[in-house]
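Page 47, continued from p. 46.
Same chain as before, 251 aa.
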Amino acid sequence: MLFLLEEVELKPTEMAIYNYINANLDKVIYMRIRELADATYVSTTTILRFCKKFGCQGYADFKSQLYHYAKSIKENNTVIQSLDQTIFTEFLQRTSQPDFQKKLNLAIDYILQSELLFFVGIGTSGIMATYGANLFSSLYKFSLAVTDPQNSPVYYVSEQFDEHICLIVFSVSGQNEDVVDYINRFRLHHIKVISMTNSANSTIARISDLNIPYYINVETYQETNITSQLPVVYLLEYLAREVYYQKHKDM
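Result:
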């Protein structure tokens, strides 16, 4: 709450003060205690009690904490950069290199050898997992999207599916603990793991049978990862079409 990490128990009147401060940060940091009291229709004594609930000695201390809090918000609200098309051009150029093509061909082999595909991701990567499952269900065979690994248990997998399942994992950082745990649980069943991460130097990349890194600029905004998923979309569409062609070339 405001500059505190933990929740503070507030009475209805204090909650009204909190809501006013939160909505008028730029104005409140310059207000005197009487002005804030008048604006929120309470006494200065009520304002002081409110400040103490936030661990402050008095109103001056509260305003100082509030000032630094407002400043940090402004710093985190920096304008994001325009989309740089060159990073996508460079990525597409890398996909034609022999080493990259070798990874893609191996991914195609793993997928063609599998009877069931699980596409795994959380957040934006979860959207990619859903798209991948829909795409491969249309062009290859029925696939499942797993966007909540913690609530998608894999303790009971029939032995007849061992070595016939392929896990296709998406993660920009390659470090999501829930996804790492999910992969490790599936590892008990001898399945193949293909991962698409922004770097080959990550936990998910290292525990995968095959990692396809795309290496583009990582971007965050207000603690949210907004790194482009365009490389992942390309990889999914490329693999889906190639798998389709391989499956039907002799028909």
